[in-house]
User: Fold this.
Amino acid sequence: MSFSDSFFAAKFALRSQDLEAYLAEALSQGGDYADIYFEYLATSSMSMDESIVKSATQGVSLGVGVRVIAGERTGYAYSDDLSPEKIRHAAKVAACIASGPAKVDKSALHEGARRNLYPVLTAPNELGFAERLDLVKRAEKAARGYDSRIFQVQATYADSLRHVLVANSDGVLNYDRQPMARLNVSALAREGNGSPQSGYSGGGGRVELDFFLNEKTPEYFAREAGRQAIVQLSAVEAPAGESVVVLGPGWPGVLLHEAVGHGLEADFNRKGTSAFSGRIGQKVASSLCTVIDDGTIGGRRGSLNVDDEGNVSQRNVLIENGILRGYLQDQLSSRITKTAPTGSGRRESYEHIPMPRMTNTFMLAGESDPEEIIRSVDRGLYCANFGGGQVDITSGNFVFSASESYLIEGGKLTRPVRNATLIGNGPEALKYVSMVGNDLKLDEGIGVCGKAGQSVPVGVGIPTVKIDRMTVGGTA
Amino acid sequence: LTLLDIANDSIKQALSAGATDAECTIAEGEEFSVQVRLGEVETIKQASSRGMGLRILAGRHTGSSYTSDLTPEGVRQLVAQAIELAAFTTEDPFAELPEAGEFGSLSLDLQLYSRDVQELEAAVKIEIARAAEAAALQFDPRITNSDGGSFDSHLGRRVFANSRGFAGEYRSSYCSVSASPVAKLGEQMERDYWYHSARRFADLEKPDYIGRRAAERTLRRLGAVKVETQKVPVIFEPRVARSMMGHIFEAIEGRSVYRQSTFLAGKLGEKVAGDGINVIDDGTIPGLFGSQPFDDEGIPTRRTTVIENGVLKSYLLNTYSARKLGLKSTGNASRGITGNAGVGHGNFYLEAGTRTPEELIASIPNGFYVTELIGSGVNIATGDYSRGAAGLWIRNGELTFAVSEVTIAGTLQQMLMTMEVANDLEFRGSVAAPTLYLPEMTVGGR
Assistant:
C-alpha cells in the first residue's frame, strides 16, 4: 500500500504536497522542526450490568495537530475541522513559538518503512454489534454462574479503530491503522451480611474478534473475576511494615512500569528531574534483572508499528543485568540530547503533544522454579494480582496496590489478605531482587498509563520474582 | 446555526427516525496553556474544539453516540448510530427521562464566566507562568531545578436539550497558575507543587505567592526518612483531606448504592460518621467550580445535606439511580458528552470545625502530618484504606523531620467515625475539606 491508497489520502483527498505546504507554513516563523498529525478514531462499547444490556455507545472523533519545535520550545495547535483553511490556521498558530525568517529548507516527504505487527483484516468494530454483544452476554452469564455468592456482575466490551498519519519536516511520512479490543468483567461477592468483595478480570489487544472466541474466551475472564471475588471473602488483615514480597507472573509487572519505567522516560532525565537522571551505566537493580520495553510484540495492547511521531517502534533494553542502559526517547528529547530515537513518542490524541512513553515493559525470565521461590520464603507476602500504581518521578517513590495476595508461611501460601498498598523507591527496590522465575508472562491486555493528563494503552509483564525487602501497607 | 439549533435539530431527527425521546449535549471549548521552565518558554498550546453527544430512548431501550463533526452530515450519522444501538440494548424499566415538572435552570447568576479571562493576552499569560516559576527558583538556594511554571486558561460553552422541551446553555471560564520546583540535598531530590485556579482572572492568586508556597512545600520534604511501623494519630493537611471527600462521594453516589458496591449502601438514617461531621453538596454557589445552573439531565442543581452530625441523610442521585432506589433525583446527573448519565457532585465539602490546625497538631505527642498521598489503594466496597504517604513527623505537638516511603492504612468506616475537623475550610476546586485529625492509623515503614 502506498500513501495515495492510505486512509487519509482516500477519505480526505489529502495529497503529499498538501502536507508539505502545511509543514512549510508551520516553519514560516523560523522553527527548527515541524510535524503534522492526523487522527481518526472510531470507538464502540457495550455494557451489561444487573443482567441487562444497559448501555451501548459508538462515535467518531477526528482532528489534526501541528507542532513546531524551536530550540527547546514547542508550539502546538490543533483543529477538529480538516478543511485546508483550519489546518493552515493551526500551522500558523503553532509557528509563532519561533520568531524570525524561515530557516529550514523544504524537504520532500518520503514514506517511512512499513510493517504490520497487528495484521487485523477485520477490526472488531467493522463487524455487526450482535457478535460483540454476545461476548458480553456470555461473560455476564459465566460470572454469575461461577458461585452463588456472586450478587453483582458487570461485563463491558469496548473496541476502537484508530487511523493515524504523521509527516514531519525531516521528510518522514508514515501512517498506521491501529485496532484495539478489550473485554472486562467485574464481580461482587458477599457471604451473609459480610461486606462485598470485588473481583476483576479483563484482556484483549490489537486483535480480531476471533481472539475472544478461541484464545481468551468470555468464560475465561468471567471465571477469573469470580474466583478473585470469592477468594477475598476469606481475606485476613494484611501485614504492615517491611516484608519479603514475591510477585506472581504477569500483571504484577506493573511494578516495573512504576519503579523504573517512568523514571527512564527521557524528558525527566534530560531535565534532571528523575531519580534515575545521570545514572546510565550504573547499577540500579540486582544483576538478575533485565528490563525491556518492546513496542514490537505482535498483537499486544502496547505495541505500535510506528509511534505517534512517525518513528518505527523497537525493542529497547532499559536495564541489562542490573545496569541502567538507556532511556525512552521522543523526538524532542532525542533532538536535544542527540540520541537515536527509540520509537517511544506517544500521545493520547491529536489534541495532545507527544511525550516519551512506555509500550510493553517486562523483565526477562530467570532460572528459578516459581515453586522453589515460594518455598524459599519463611514469612512473606505473595502478590498474585494488582490494581494500579503511581510514582513520584523525582524522589523515585512508587506504590502499587495488591488486589489479590496471600501470606507465605513456612514456604507455603496460606491465607489470602485484604487489599494493601506496597511502597518502594525506584532506584533501590530492584536491588533487593534475589530470585527471578523462569515463567515470564505478559499481562492479559488491560493496561492504561497516565502521564501529565494523557492516557495511552500499555502492556507489562514479569516472571515470578522474589524481593527481599519492601514495605507493605496493611494494618496487622 | 447556533449550537442550540444543532442540538434541537438532532433531537428532531432522532424522533422522526423512531426514537421516543432524545437528549443532546454539545460542548465547545477554547484552551490555552503555557509552560515555562528555567525561565524559558517550554510549550505553548492553543486550540478550540467541539464535541456533540446524543442519547436516545426507543421505548425503554437506550442508544448513545458522539461525534466531533457538527456538520449536517456528521449529525445525520450521529443520529443513525444512536438509533442503531437501541436495537441491541435490553428493555430497562428504569430508563426514562426526568418528569416534565423536574426540568429547570437556576435563575441566579452563578458567575461561571468572566470576560477578563477571555481578554487576557498571551504575553501576560506567559509572564504569569514565568513569574510563578521564578519566585520558586529564587526562594532558596536548595531549589536547584524545576519542573516549570504554568498558566492555563479555558473558555467553554455547554448546551443541553431534550425532547421534553428542556433547552439550556451556559458559558464558563477558567484560569490557573502553578509552579513545581525541585530541591536537592545530597543525593536526595524532592519535588512538590502549588497552584491556584479561578473562574475570574481577577481572583487568581498572584504568581509570586504560588511560587513561594511551592518552594516551601518542596523544601520541607528534604531529608525525608522512613519511620518505624507503628499505630499513631494522623493529620491530613487540606490538600490531602480533599481526597477523603472523593472517597466519601464514591461511597454515596447513586450507582454504587443501588449496586450495593459501597460500604454505605443501605445506611440512610444511620450514624456513619462522628458527631459534628457535616458533609454538604451544593451546586448553587456563585463563582465556584462545582456550580452549574442545571445538571446534565436538565434538572436544576441544589444544596443537599449528605451527612448531618454524623448521620447519613441523603445519597447523591441522578434520575436513573433515584428510580432504582425509589427516591427523587438530587440534581446530580453528570456525563461527558454521551452515554447514560452518571452521578457527579457540585461543590462537595466537609463543614469546618472549631479547633485550628495548630491546636490539633499541638495535641499530638507522636504522630504523622500527611502532605501527600499516592496510589489508589482504597476499596469502596469494603472500606479498606491503604495508601502511600509522605509528610512531616509530629513530636511533642510540633512538626519536625520529613517522612516518606511509608504507607498509612485503616478503614474508611473507622476514619469517618473518629475524625475531627479543623476550622480551615477553603475552596480550591469543587471538592473541599479542612485539615483532618484521625486518632489512629497504621503507618507502615521500617
